[in-house]
Amino acid sequence: MAQRRIDTTQLVYSSESGRIRQEAPTPSAAPPSDGVVRISRTSSGRKGKTVTLVTGVPMGDAAELVRELKRLCGSGGALKEGVVEIQGDHRDKVAAHLEGRYRIKRAGG
Hints:
By secondary structure, the protein is an alpha+beta fold. The protein has helices at about 60-75, 90-100, and strands spanning about 15, 20, 35-40, 50-55, 75-80, 85, 105. The protein is elongated and about 65 Å long.
C-alpha cells in the first residue's frame, strides 16, 4: 500500500509571536460565464446512469431552477458546484423550458 506524504512545512507557532493563525482559502464566487447556459448529457462516472447537466446558470437562480426542473421532468436532481444535475436524458424538456429566460446551447453529443 502506498503511503501518502503529509506537508509538514507549514509554520504554526513562533516563540516570538505565539500561535500563527492560518486564514482559510476563500472559495471563488463563481466561475466566469459567457452568458450562455449549456445543456448536455453524460453518464461517465455514474455507473452507466444518464444525467442531464445544465451549466452557466447564475448562482442566484440555480437553487430555484433545480426545483423547477425536477418538477418539470418528474425526476431527481441536485445542484453540485454550480452545475444543475437532473437524472435521466431530459435535454429537450430542459431546453424548451429555459429558452425564454436564457441564451441556451446544447452541448455534447
